[in-house]
Amino acid sequence: MSATTTTRGSRPLAGMANLTGREAATWWTTGRWRLHTVVWTAVLGGLLCLMLWVLPTVLDAAEAQGGVSGEPSEVALQFPDMAAVVIALGVVLLTQGLLLDERRNGVLEWLLSKPVGRPAVVLAKFVGQGSALLVTVLLVPWLVVHALLSIADGGLWSPTNSLAAMGVLALVVAFHLALVLALSTLTSSRVAILAVPIVLIVTSDGITSLWPELFHVMPWSLGPLASVLLAEGALVSGWPIVATVGWTAALLLAASLLLHRAEL
User: Fold this and answer.
1) Rounded to whole angstroms, how far apart are CA atoms 105 and 235?
2) Residue 49: helix, strand or coil by DSSP?
3) CB 225 within 8 A of CB 235
4) What's the Cα-to-Cα distance from 75 to each of 47, 101, 110, 201, 262, rounded to whole Å?
5) How far apart are CA 249 and CA 262, in angstroms?
6) Which residues lie below 8 Å from residue 199, measured CB to CB, with a gap of 6+?
7) What is the DSSP code string of 119-145?
8) How far is it between the farthest Cα atoms of the chain?
9) Which of 229, 77, 213 is nearest to 168 (CA)?
10) Which domain holds residue 214?
């Protein structure tokens, strides 16, 4: 009996704990987490500073009418939507080689010759990589975002509003990681793995403008949802959250099934 056949007959989640530790170690035992924490804090913090102080000053100096007033309440209503796009693109770029590179260099085939389940490989990458991404790309940068909004507002910005908005954006991270994993089991083309999510991110506004009812089922509706939560503390609709959880679970299931059937 071949190693592949043995693996396919083993328990689906066999070896997941060790695999998750292996994925997490690519961040926490190297300087990678420090680098990306600094980079993404600078990116999101810099974008917010631009909206709060730089653009309004430039527009005032030019006596021009701009779309950013610098008022914290108005900036808070726009920033998370922009941040969601930046975060989604970042997750896609950082994870596009997770399975693809291991398939190409034979590491994935070697892993699957061990007593591990193929679904465990997918879920370990989702949990191990996802937890690191949440900390470096979202959690730490969002603490800085909260501090900057508090400074601009002259008082503590609502922690509840900020935490709720961050929770919605965490689903942006989870969905796009699951999407990349699913695509990586479907194709060996790096261009396709990058292009599909990027096209969907870029065209999402146009799609919802043509079919407004899709707002309730598209993961790309999470940005506007987070914006209202951060600015007003109001949940416009819970359906995008429910839909994104469902899409994420479906993508992980698809990735597990496709990897299970793949010939490496």
Assistant:
1) 46
2) helix
3) yes
4) 11, 40, 50, 21, 47
5) 20
6) none
7) HHHHHHHHHHHHHHHIIIIIIHHHHHH
8) 76
9) 229
10) 3-261
Express the helix, strand and coil content of the chain in percent, nearest 5 each: 80, 0, 20
pLDDT (0 to 100) of residue 2: 40
Amino acid present at 12: P
Return the pLDDT at 57: 82
Cβ atoms within 10 Å of 110's Cβ, excluding its own: 12
| φ/ψ bin of 64: left (φ > 0), alpha (ψ from -120 to 50), beta (otherwise) | beta
Predicted local confidence at residue 46, as pLDDT: 98
For residue 97, what are its two tokens? Answer: 């080689």
Q: Is the predicted pLDDT of residue 156 greater than 70, yes or no?
A: yes
Best CA proximity match to 81, nearest among 209, 231, 223: 223
Position 209 scores a pLDDT of 86
Q: Which of 52, 46, 98, 49 is nearest to 72 (CA)?
A: 52
**What digits encode the pLDDT tens for the residues 84-101?**
999 999 999 999 999 999
Give pLDDT tens digits for 43-77.
999 999 999 999 888 876 666 555 556 899 999 99
Place of tokens 């910005």: 157
Provide CB contacts within 8 A for 47, sequence distance 6+. Answer: 79, 82, 83, 86
Number of domains in the chain: 1
pLDDT averaged over the chain? 91
Rg (CA), the chain: 20
Q: What residues have CB less than 8 Å from 134, skipping those under 6 apart?
A: 170, 173
